[in-house]
Design a protein that fits this description.
The chain is an all-alpha fold and 226 residues long. The chain is 78% helix and 0% strand.
Length: 226
């Protein structure tokens, strides 16, 4: 009787949240091999979580840094003395987030159904093959000869094409588009990304000029007073 009661005891909210996180992490493997129903269930059936998506994004960024630092020099041109880990991560994370923002900002124009969180999750899960393929290749690059580089390059290309294909299918499922409309939407998203980057650069340039002006004005006043 006591054993039955123990088995039927409800899980604590923290345990339920942890189990949901683990399940959504594992669900990434279903998404990358069955993308059509995987991405649909990811957002519409709530099979994914923002925590798991962010974890996969973090793993992607870490993988890229490890790739630059530990890949055999015969296969990558990355001078270690000039590599800044945080700059490398920011150079990928910043455009990624702006791309999600540009995609979300165009949903009204293209009658898209995805929310920003849905777009973010789909894009993060689409990066999973990069981590799964490139992490082992860091080790492989240090045990194969340069003559065997074709094998290495083929796997790299497969991972990139895989990720791009998952992005395409993921956004198509999130917004409930057809293939043709998804292609147009992706082109518009890239244009939106470039426009946002341009506006940010103009804003930062104006902000820098304004700060320089006020600093020089302060120095001039301080010089005259003292």
């Amino acid at each position: 009787m006591s054993a039955a009661r123990l088995e039927s005891k409800p899980l604590s909210p923290r345990k339920e949240k942890w189990n949901k996180y683990v399940d959504s992490m594992k669900y990434a493997f279903h998404v990358i091999f069955h993308p059509f129903d995987g991405f649909w269930d990811l957002t519409h059936e709530k099979r994914g979580t923002l925590a798991a998506a962010t974890t996969w994004l973090a793993l992607f960024l870490i993988t890229r840094v490890l790739e630059l630092m530990f890949t055999n020099f015969q296969f990558i041109n990355a001078p270690l003395q000039y590599i800044n880990i945080f700059e490398q991560m920011a150079s990928l994370l910043f455009p990624f987030l702006i791309l999600c923002l540009a995609n979300w900002s165009l949903t009204t124009l293209f009658d898209g159904k995805g929310r920003f969180s849905d777009i973010y999750m789909a894009m993060c899960y689409a990066l999973v093959p990069y981590t799964l393929v490139h992490l082992p290749l860091i080790f492989v690059s240090n045990i194969i000869a340069f003559d065997e580089a074709a094998f290495y390059e083929v796997l790299l290309m497969i991972s990139i094409v895989w990720c791009v294909g998952l992005v395409f299918i993921g956004l198509m499922q999130v917004h409930d588009y057809g293939p043709g409309k998804t292609i147009i939407f992706l082109i518009a998203t890239v244009v939106g990304l470039l426009i946002i980057l341009f506006l940010l650069l103009v804003f930062l340039s104006l902000l820098s000029d304004a700060l320089s002006y006020f600093i020089s004005l302060y120095r001039e006043i301080a010089f005259r007073l003292y």
